[in-house]
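Ligand-bound model needed. ribulose-5-phosphate.
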Amino acid sequence: MKLQVAMDVLTTDAALTLAGQVAPYVDIIELGTPLIKAEGLRAVTAIKQAHPDKIVFADLKTMDAGELEADIAFTAGADLVTVLGTAGDSTIVGAVAAATKHGKGIVVDLIGVADKVSRAREVIALGAVFVEMHAGLDEQAEEGFTLETLLSAGESAQVPFSLAGGVSTATIAAVQRAGAEVAVAGGAIYSAADPAAAAAELRAAIS
Ligand SMILES: O=C(CO)[C@H](O)[C@H](O)COP(=O)(O)O
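Prediction:
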């Protein structure tokens, strides 16, 4: 299973510092949506230039203009770009067309999708490389939140998936057991006193 760091920091400088600390332990470096909104796609270019050997993931969470938004992110240096599963099929098809043109990939984020299993199968059929079983930061803060729903959706869908939703050292083994191709960890790494040590610990917990 691959490890992805989600960099939900707000400046390119902070992202470059964080990426430099954790790169030895992660496979995929994600620029979070708030970072891209704050700094623009220049941040994607800066991270790809600093880490050309890593998979750079631009969490655009595109909802419309799929081909155009994906195209500008791939041109900026992204290897993977997210489109929302709640978007229409034509948006996903357009984004996949841009990915094909660049030789890159689209990940469909299933945040807010009620029937994640069915939508996961639909968007993989449309050409997404994998789906993200995702509970966002707001959902994680809701009373009674648990990772179980995401784990079981991933297991049931029988398609390639990543899992994001407050993944930590306490839960990453369960993410791997559920069959995820990628575990995404944001706060568990960037909020740690020692992000490099936190990433190393997550890496050590998986194979
Ligand atoms: O995309 C996101 C929020 O929409 C986050 O980057 C993702 O949820 C991973 O971060 P965390 O591990 O802190 O949940």
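The chain has a mean pLDDT of 98.
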